[in-house]
Amino acid sequence: MKTGILPYVLIIAGLFTCEAVQAQSAKASLNHIALSVVNLKKSTEFYMKVVQLDTIPEPFHDNKHTWFSIGPKSHLHIIESAKEILSHDRNSHLCFTVPSVDDFVKRLNTMKVPFSDWQGASGKITTRVDGVKQIYFQDPDGYWIEINDAKD
């Protein structure tokens, strides 16, 4: 009789172990970042032309939302809802990786978009201790954007 119960006990123990493993692997992942903007048209053009993001369909169709793809399963939502442009700290920024910061800087210069290094020196590029180049600039609502050439 005792040996007849053992397989059932092992099966039940195995089920609890599988549930525990699944619970540990159910981590959160980034879906989207939403920014409140004053002028949707101006911000949409900026992210399309300057940052070169592609728009994706948005479900509202209310002329108050634009959605962009920023990764395989991540999006940037800009929403026209801000009443005024606020000051934003450089430490709070979006970061996009490009193949070449130097080529990106050439585009910014052509488009007359001001940028700086981390310390705020206009037109300069920061090279981090790990060799990654980075620059910073602001979108029309003052949100900070970092562009870098990180490989990972």
Q: What does this molecule look like?
A:
This protein is of the alpha/beta class and 152 residues long. It folds into two domains: 30-84, 2,3-Dihydroxybiphenyl 1,2-Dioxygenase, domain 1 (Roll); 85-152, 2,3-Dihydroxybiphenyl 1,2-Dioxygenase, domain 1 (Roll). The chain contains three helices and eight strands; from the N terminus they run αβαββββαβββ. The chain has helices at 2-25, 40-49, 101-111; strands at 32-37, 54-56, 65-71, 74-80, 93-97, 126-127, 133-138, 144-148. The strands form two sheets. It has a four-stranded mixed sheet with strand order 1-4-3-2, covered by helices on one side. Strands 5-8-7-6 form a four-stranded mixed sheet.
Number of helices: 3
Distance from first to last alpha carbon: 58 Å
Largest sheet: 4 strands, mixed
Order of helices and strands: HEHEEEEHEEE
Q: Rg, please? A: 23 Å
Helix content: 25-40%
Question: What is the CATH class name of the largest domain?
Answer: Alpha Beta
Give the low-pLDDT segments. Answer: none
CATH topology of the largest domain: 2,3-Dihydroxybiphenyl 1,2-Dioxygenase, domain 1
> What structural class do helix, strand and pairing data support?
alpha/beta
- Overall 3D shape: globular
User: What's the β-strand tally?
Assistant: 8
Q: Give the full name of the CATH homologous superfamily of the largest domain.
A: 2,3-Dihydroxybiphenyl 1,2-Dioxygenase, domain 1
Give a short synopsis of this structure.
By secondary structure, this protein is of the alpha/beta class. It has helices at residues 2-25, 40-49, 101-111, and strands at residues 32-37, 54-56, 65-71, 74-80, 93-97, 126-127, 133-138, 144-148. The longest helix has 24 residues, at 2-25.
